[in-house]
Fold these 4 entries.
Entry 1:
Amino acid sequence: MDLGPVREKIDGIDREIIAKLNERFRLASEVARVKHKAGLPIYHPGREEALLRKLAEINPGPLSESGMRAIYREIISAMISLEAPMTIAYLGPEATYTEQAARKNFGTQPNYAPMPTIPDVFAAVEKGEADHGVIPIENSTGGVVSHSIDMLAETDLTIINQVYLSIEHCLISQSPLEEVREVRSKDQALAQCREWLARHLPHAQQVDADSTAQAVKQAGELKGVAAIASELAAEKYEVPILAKGIQDRANNVTRFLVLGREPVGSGTGHDRTSLLLSLNDEPGALEKALKPFSSRGINMTKIESRPSRRKAWDYLFYIDIDGHWSDEIVQAAVGELKACCPLVKWLGSYPVRG
């Protein structure tokens, strides 16, 4: 088959795409100038999600929705970088799952700054050293990341977006499986592979590491030590993979939060709001706190209790509900909530990903 004519058509389409992309960049620059004058943020996750949903509706295929989102994620990333280069702090070191989540949300163009701990991510954004931060908040198998919830209770930062990332764990070591005596990783990763470890390495000691990537670096330096981390981390630190897909649940997903210093945008019609509550020490206190939502048909997608760290046996409740803080029905529920709860803290409202 003579592919010449087909390739000529592709070349012509590529020229059209480049011309249209540059036209789009020029128009985006005009929008950015108006935003700068008005003091509005360039990065607007709600507007981006609304755009991606609209593109999904008009996309006839064969380009998949995930493929379309990936392409436009990079287009938007390049446009934002052109107008307002961003620095994104994340739980490091490099090649962690949190870095993958950050890049999934912001694309390849920002400057990425790995931080040694979750509090360091918060501090970088609070001090203005980074524009936004990305932290893990919960896993579908291992549950919540308690340190992240504790930090949300103390910070003035706002949740402006969320990212879901499918997690595939690998066992990584320079030693063969039969010589592994110790397995290191983040506590969440160890918990997500508990059954696999019990079957294949029942006598190996499990040791918490500050991050999955740090565990890989240690596994590359120490004999008899293995790490649980991503394939990307194994490639970056050049440590062999002994086994892939060792997580106990095939549908293993981690949810990450994107943090900013200020709220961004209004509701999209498909949003989520996070709140932090404290309760009076009295019978039925939790029931009273939940009633403002249930009576209005507001769906609560999550509730998690954490010690307040102010006094013994005092707890805070982290709650996610459907809806945006600015929605009239949410404001009515919060107004009623404030009458029965000593503390009602809005942590942020953000779009639910399509």
Note: The two ends are 41 Å apart (CA to CA).
Entry 2:
Amino acid sequence: MTALGVSGQADPADKQAVIGRLDERTAHYGEMAHEIWSLAEVGYQEFKSTRLLQDELAAAGFSIEAGVAGMPTAFIASYGEGEPIIGMLGEYDALPGVLQTASPERELRTDGAIAGHACGHHLFGTGSAAAAVAVKEWMAANNVKGTLRYYGCPAEEGGSGKVYLVRAGKFDDASAVLHWHAGDRNGVGMGSSMANKSAKFRFHGVSSHAAGAPERGRSALDGVEALNFMANLMREHVPSDTRIHYVITKGGEAPNVVPDFAEVFYYVRNPDRRVIQDVWGRLEAAAQGAAAGTGTTVDWEIIHGNYELLPNEPLGRTMWENLELVGGVTYDDAEREFAERIGATLPGGRAAALEVAAQVQPFRPKSPPFPASTDVADISWTVPTIGLGTATWVPGTPGHSWQAVAAGGMSIGTKGMMVAAKTLALTAMDLFTDAEILAAASDDLEARRGADFHYEPLLGDRPPPLDYRK
């Protein structure tokens, strides 16, 4: 085999060999993903999941740097030396409260789990590891120069784990970064995303008997409700693509006790982080006003902050060509029956034909922003970055749903994961062997972010919130 093809990209025979090797390992990686699915550990608590991934990569010949950037469950696995330096991202945190078995009907897990992989991060972490091992073996067999890195990234769901890696300079020398995500169809993401910032607002009052001496109390819950009222009024006077979400995480212990402590957890999103900064300042002012008006005090803790995603067209075209080569997900009879039953449970019925899972979506250089947020975005402003989505869920399934947990826990999820693993591997091979792609990707990044760009994380200089899920 040769490392370079006629066009400068990886040899087609090498690519077919890597695809075949990953096919042979499908059962192994499916079992590994399912183990992480069963563990369902939340952000910054993924101790068993990160150990599984680290052990897999160490056994394959990667060196492991654990506990990076102040996060015990973060790690970097490296192979090779010199340039180019190609990174692959892996995630492995679950979402609290989304409990479900691998069943096409609503069926809660009863084994003590407190979370579920409703965003498919068990597949994300495992699939990227599968790709990294396959590329490492190809590099060793062909004496390919350069460095391959797997970044183990905790707490994507509201913890901004990758932002701390960026802030610590862990991507400063990377040539390109590849990632993927679970989804309901196969395509390369050329759209941006919503920037996002969050905080827990904590009100402090004075407790008292709610009936016998209410005049002596100052309700922290009143402070929370006053903030919520003002935030809901503010919705009319912010850009229409802004999103404001909140949950009351602490509201008191008993109705007959004036609460001396209450907490509300806020998210603010917009496709432009500059808009978020403006809206966020108004939210903080509303919190101060709520405290003044209720005779309480307030403080807040910034929990996370993510930029909007910056796509990269040269990397996107390269990844899409490889996804086209790999193809989509084909269901067997049992999987099709499972998918039909899942479709019947989706609100309003299934919104997409099952055949979508087997298709590769067209490449669209200009796509609307995706209405969600990701900490991959901060990486994308630092180094050329691109990702894809694959059909790990039944077409029409929304993320963060029990239906996503169910499909991700059975063979449909595994098949979509292996589409991603193959596409990541083939794309990395091209980047190691074609310097022109990397040069074009670097130029594209500079053009999109502007020459005067200076990175400042939205979450400031706070340390990782290791207890935000406790």
Note: The radius of gyration is 23 Å.
Entry 3:
Amino acid sequence: MDEKPFRCEYSATQLEHLKQHMRIHTGEKPYRCEVCEYSASRLDYLKRHMNSHTDEKPYRCEYSAYSQLAHLKQHMLSHTGEKPYKCEECEYSTSKPGDLKRYIQTHTDKKL
């Protein structure tokens, strides 16, 4: 059995993971950008943000380059045709979560 000695409503196996998690509750953002007003709860978030101040785009496909891995993964769906974001009320699906969020409004606007 995997012992989890540090606890919140959630559990963590390492103290550092618990500290990171607790920042969700406290809103603490100790990592600050030296260029702008951005601050982050985790160092890796700050490092990812720093790419926005440079032209560095290390994540690439054959046609495009991105500063964040998540953006490349999102873009790659356009190559595969995969549409993992599905409407719960109809058959609509899309490759972009923002498109789904906007589309769902068509159902709520009709009900008003």
Note: The CA atoms of residues 65 and 98 lie 20 Å apart.
Entry 4:
Amino acid sequence: MSILNSKSLRKFSNLLSLMQKGMVAQIWAIKVFQSEHMISASCMETNLDTPSLQASDVRDVQAEFVADPFIITYKQKFYLFFEVFNKGSARGEIGLAISDDGAKWEYQRIVLRESFHLSYPQVFVIGDDVYMLPETSGAGRVLLYKAKQFPFEWEVVSVLFEGNFLDPSIVKYEDKWWIFAGSEGGNLHLFHADQLLGPWMEHPQNPIITNDKRITRPGGRLVAMGSQLFRYTQDGSQYYGNSVRVFKVNTLSEFEYKDEEVSIVLRGTNKDRDWRKDGMHHIDQLMISDTQWLVAVDGQRTKRWNYFAWKLDRIKSRMFS
């Protein structure tokens, strides 16, 4: 009879705990809607009853969820890029949906996958060129992609800087490029460059905010309104994907940084069977006219699995991926 060592006992104990408690998954979906203004206060009363995109809309991989939506308009069409969590590869990949009017979205396919996890695909247009800055923390580098053949083919054009940074968010503000990025432990880092491709420099106060999971991890594209700049942040203090806050940046220079909180803008409804019952963690906004914005958000509800059903589902997904 073999004697279990302490490592084996811990594994057995963990497995037993999972069997007893089951598995809890966060199932994210995406909603796109119009607003008469930039979202800077709670939009809980906005009609977000039905998601615009969910995992069942993804046809080319077995998706567990869709999240982190970013919108651009290009040649009179709207393009929505977002994370698709592929159950087969157990990684995030970048999916695409297209719309003529911003209301009805048609899923296309996965447009970017790597050997590491991808998410948070911030897309932006410069002239005729389209760029994407996704989260690539699994690669240990912040990678900038450019459309080789828009919108389906992408290639890395620059390693902006090294590090395991979360949800890097880029903005051009007062003739300089800025990237806000989170890191584990609740820290916010700031980088700047005169040109998009760099060289990128660290802010001397980095990390500019430390040890605060309420206000440090980026939660969507920064919005510049004239001389004002707003940043959105995930509140992960209670649990991942709880809510989104907005901050007004008061001081931004190569040497200083200061901001102030404006409001919580997104959170879960706590309503049974609501697709965003248990939280929201992302917002992107596109000004489409002087009085209209197209807004993309995500929301989640938790799903509890029997452990064996969860394990079988993963095995089946790998077989058919």
Note: Residues 55 and 65 are 5 Å apart (CA to CA).
